[in-house]
Design goal:
Helices cover 8% and strands 42% of the residues. With 143 residues, the chain is mostly beta strands. The chain has two domains: 30 residues, no CATH class; 99 residues, no CATH class. It starts with a strand and ends with a strand. The mean pLDDT is 91.
Length: 143
């Protein structure tokens, strides 16, 4: 059930939904470029294994089911995982770092047609978002 709709402008609105007692906040946006970022809880690993067009060949860890799901999602929407496109040291790949485990589960996705706009994507090790979370940034050039 839709419980709230807020139109910000011609290109942006928020929609509040309640589904099965759970509230969802949906952001609907139109823009010429699409960037999706988040913690996808998936490991894409180093090798591209069938995802050459969207996986740049640089990753961390061993691919798991969540990583395959993320890669399939990116393939379906013609997106590229930008943090897999640039060779980095481990400290610039790992998005979650603790004494026990190091993982890369945060990704920034960009439309494959706009891949040339991305000049770099990396972790800033000195910028911790929490005790273990690290800031992932993407550098974009103007057309």
């Amino acid at each position: 059930m839709v419980v709230d709709v807020r139109r910000v402008n011609d290109r942006l609105m928020t929609i509040g939904l309640v589904v099965g007692g759970v509230t969802f906040n949906v952001i609907s946006a139109y823009a010429p470029q699409l960037i999706i970022g988040g913690d996808f809880s998936g490991h894409i690993e180093v090798t591209t294994r069938g995802y050459d067009e969207l996986h740049g060949g640089f990753g961390f860890g061993v691919r798991n089911e969540g990583g395959t799901t993320l890669l399939d999602f990116a393939k379906a929407l013609d997106l590229v995982l930008t943090n897999s496109c640039f060779q980095k040291r481990e400290e610039q790949l790992v998005t979650f770092w603790s004494k026990i485990v190091r993982t890369q589960t945060d990704y920034l996705l960009l439309q494959r047609s706009d891949k040339g706009l991305c000049t770099d994507c990396k972790i800033i090790p000195s910028e911790c978002l929490s005790m273990q979370r690290r800031l992932l940034v993407m550098d974009l050039a103007r057309e």
